[in-house]
Amino acid sequence: MKEIVIDPITRLEGHGKIVIKLDENGEVQKALLQIPELRGFEKFLVGRTAEDAPQITPRICGVCPWAHHMASTKALDDLFKVDPPEPAKKIREFIYNVFMLEDHAIHFYVLAGPDFIVGPKAPKEERNIVGIIKKLGVDLVKNIIVTRKKLRNLEQLLGGKITHPVMGLPGGVAKPLSEDDWKICYETSKEALEFAKFTLETFKNVVLSNDEYVDLIKSDAYTHKTYYMGLVDEKNQVNFYDGKIRVVDPDGNEYVKFDAKNYLDHMAEHVEPWTYVRFTYLKGVGWKGFVDGKDSGIFSVAPLARLNAADGMATPMAQEAYKEFYETLGGKPVHHTLAFHWARVIEMVYAAERMMELIEDPDIKDPNVRKLPEATPDVGIGVVEAPRGTLIHHYETDGKGIIKKANLIVATQNNSARMVLSIEKAAKSLIHGGKVDDGILNMIEMAFRAYDPCHACATHSLPGSMPLIVRIYDKDDNLIKEIRRD
Amino acid sequence: MSKPKVALYWCASCGGCEEATVDLTERLFDLIEAVDIVFWPIAMDFKREDLEKMEDGSIDIAIINGGIRLEEHEEMVKLLRRKSKIVIAYGSCAHLGGIPGLANAYPREEILKFAYEEAPTVINPDKVRPMKKVTIDGMEFELPEFLEYLKPLDEVIDVDYYIPGCPPTPDLTWEAISKLLSGEIPPKGHVFGSDKSLCHECPLNETKPDEIRLEELKRPHQVILDRSKCYLAQGVLCMGPVTRGGCEALCIKGGMPCTGCFGPLDGVYNQGAKALSFLASVIDIEDEEKYREMLEKLGFDPIGWFFRYSLAKGMIYRKKRDGE
Amino acid sequence: MSDGDGFEPTIVVFACHWCTYQAINLAGTSRMKYPPNVRVIRVMCSGRVDPQFVIEAFKNGADGVLVAGCHPGDCHYVNGNMKTMRRTVMLEKLLQDMGIEKERFRREWISAAEAKKWVEVVTEMVEQVRKLGPLKLAEKREVVMNE
Question: Rounded to a whole number, what is the distance in Å from the CA of A128 to chain B's nearest CA?
Fold first, then answer.
């Protein structure tokens, strides 16, 4: 029994490792993605005054703090049974789409982009932002960085801080949108729309026009037939801020659609002794182990899942891109993991169009942005679509709003079971006769990179590769080979 | 003249401190030009063995964020301390334990029990728990040890400087690092940022009365604050008076009171206790019954309000007495 | 839990100079017996007691802490004890949330003439804390991860 240990995996929340066990013929017997991370947020929220939750929970993740901030704030609306005034909801949805756009952008250009823009088999020194600069030009890259910064400046303007915002309160937001701030938001929204359109064009020119890439996307090594979950509005279109949770089965038929308030009826968590992460699954189908298919409760979230679970996009350009997506890939649902990247870009277009819709609505400047809660707090459940998937915050409090119990279903964990499937399938397809090299490492990497697991602070990855060491031990635990990826 | 060597490392971190560094934007590229980054696990593939091979003291500055939560973190920071001339604790978690330090109010067993057994979505009849070592189908797998409680950086290694904040602002980060690189070395133990409380840089400072006398306290969701006047004077807790300034008062400008992330002022060890003292002082109730009633009716969370970022520092961990 | 093997608790007492400390003196000169388990720290006013002192006392080995000063209305510095009142009420909740039993922290108003009250308070407190045993917060949290 040989063992290959890939440690650490970066671009996951906390630290992670992949351990691959080979049999005597060098074939993969088992490959496990182990996540050693737990900080105890659900426990230490107990005893806290509920209105502090929107500022405490973003500390789960400094890359997607807005997702937690928003889910938490909505849970508070529910907790105090207070419906915010329309202007407040519009401000919230506007800034939330700003966040989705800039977060997706950084993942696409700096994490995922290199694999397609430069190529999955390109030399590793070029599989990074530097390679993109070479291929597409430095002005372009500067524009990307400047646009992202402008979007983040809006987050500071409306939310107080970019990382760990303060705006959310039950019943509204802390401050209205002033005329001056509106002007900045408006100008930036226009630029953002151009930027999103450009990103989609780039994806089409670089990826879709390349048959090799399209084949790779469609290849079986990266395909799993699971259920898909996402938030949809009344027309079953994708919405990041609000809606009902909809799940489709591997054939694309609606399996269930429910209000987040009833999530306990439909979602459950499974525990394994070899990892700290808990695996969510569909309660109605049941936990059948790490397998895909209609009989397994494993489901997927985030861009590909959202597009699969919906009937379309709510804005025109995104809708066109949505139709093209399914036409190219052979109809709904799409099961190809690498298609996450394309779906992510389509969502960028939707986010930018939605931003425009909201900022052009004169109602958004209305100063009435707070409604004081009156009801006695009890239970509150809030949901949003984080960049990385459906995110649920659930708080139970005493009559004074002191939290007695908290349950969080955190986006990435909804993909964690499917990620395990992806790693094992990729390893089994790619490693034969005990042979491992740099190309193979990158291909395994691509299997989970597509999910954009939380903590992807993408702009830190200056080199093209995730740092990997692969050590191969013989059955007596002697190190016989070490491959480093530099 | 070779470039100064810089190492960056993260312990139990949310990634916000990394984002703060990235928000340097153009200045990040300047920084990368000016220094030699010799260790940065997030971005570069230098491994632990590379660090071990370096000469002791050969790294000029090590910037470490996150709290010490895993055995692995403890080992890595001790290694970095040996190899570095200067160690900076970056961000609230490294400085004071941060928000994840709130877990220190609960026994580790309770944290694990809720996560793996009691959470309403968990279905785990066999009470399976993550294990340090587990055998599956004859194959062995390991997980790193979880420490009893989270520690700030200076409870594990000697720390030279602190850059506070959750996260620190890009401007403060730039100011601190450029100072150190230019040779302007402050006294050891210096915490960057202002040496005055947040009140001094708060845009609402002029509206703060000389004497604050509150007849009752309110929670932020119970009032609509007049954003042109001192929030504390309106009856909500603002940690500004007991918090180090230097953050540009971003939360105040966002319409919400300060929650204390820059930590205490010089000379104060326990920010939470100081905050309790200050709030008790500005409340103007002399009848004990009435005071107790007010707090009871309000809903009062001293740990979350006063110790949100600093519980790991302020918590009571009993030391052993002589003879034990 | 309780330690029957001769555990002697240590109670740190912050006593205000004008009232409680005088009461302690009076108890002494009157030959009134009270447990030797107290470590008395004289402060000019109970309002001088920073909550940090209470926390440091527990951190450094105190099994119990008592803050004692003048009755409301009698403070030598007019309203120093009002601050004491408000701080100690908040401290009660804080210490409870930190896992410290409520018998271990107490605040009393003891005037200069009330030597008897001093004796009663301190005797009762020592007994209650003796029953609770030494403050063992760190041990409370000791867990061994499944092997």
Answer: 11
- Residue A64 scores a pLDDT above 60: yes
CATH dotted code for B5-100+149-181: 3.40.50.700
Q: Does B283 touch chain C (CB under 8 A)?
A: yes
Angle at C91 between CA B308 and CA B219, to 5 degrees: 50
**Interchain contact, C143 vs B274, CB within 8 Å:** no
Locate B141 and state its tokens.
């797998």
* Domain-wise residue ranges, chain B: 5-100+149-181, 106-147, 198-314
Q: How many residues does chain A have?
A: 486
Taking an 8 Å cut-off on Cβ atoms, the answer to whether A273 and B130 are in contact is: yes
Residues of A in Cβ contact (< 8 Å) with B40: 460
Average pLDDT over residues A82-97: 98
pLDDT greater than 50 at residue A320: yes
Chain B contact for C1 (CB, 8 A cutoff): no
Question: Element (H or E) spanning A382, and its range?
Answer: strand A379-386
Evaluate whether ipTM surpasses 0.90: yes
- Give the pLDDT of residue C145: 27
| Of B43 and A404, more confident | A404
pLDDT of amino acid B42: 59
- Element (H or E) spanning B73, and its range? helix B71-83
A30–B contact, CB cutoff 8 A: yes
Domains, chain C, ranges and CATH? Answer: 11-146 (3.40.50)
- The residue of A149, A161, A454, A469 whose CB has the most chain B CBs within 10 angstroms, and thus the best one to mutate to test that interface, is A161
CB-CB under 8 Å, B145 with C145? yes
**C100-134 pLDDT, tens digit each:** 999 999 999 999 999 999 999 999 999 999 999 98
CB–CB of C137 and B317 under 8 A?
Answer: yes
The mean per-residue pLDDT over the stretch A258-276 comes to 94
For B188-199, write each residue's pLDDT tens digit: 999 999 999 999
CB of B145 within 8 Å of a chain C CB? The answer is yes
A160-169: pLDDT as tens digits: 999 999 999 9
- The pLDDT tens digits of the residues spanning A177-229 come to 999 999 999 999 999 999 999 999 988 888 888 888 888 888 887 899 999 99
Nearest-angstrom CA–CA distance, B46 and A283: 43
- What pLDDT shows up at residue B138? 84
Distance from CA of B311 to the nearest CA of A (A): 11
Backbone angles phi, psi at A417, to 5 degrees: -70, -45
Please answer whether residues A369 and A85 qualify as being in contact, where contact means their C-beta atoms are separated by less than 8 angstroms: yes
Whether C50 and B303 lie within 8 Å, measured CB to CB: no
Angle of CA points A38, A44, A49, to nearest 5°: 145
Cis peptide preceding C72, ω within 30 of 0: no
Q: Is B272 helix (H, G, I), strand (E, B) or coil?
A: helix
CB atoms C97 and B132 under 8 Å: no
Residue C32 touches partner B, C-beta closer than 8 Å: no
Determine contact: C146 vs chain B, CB below 8 A. yes
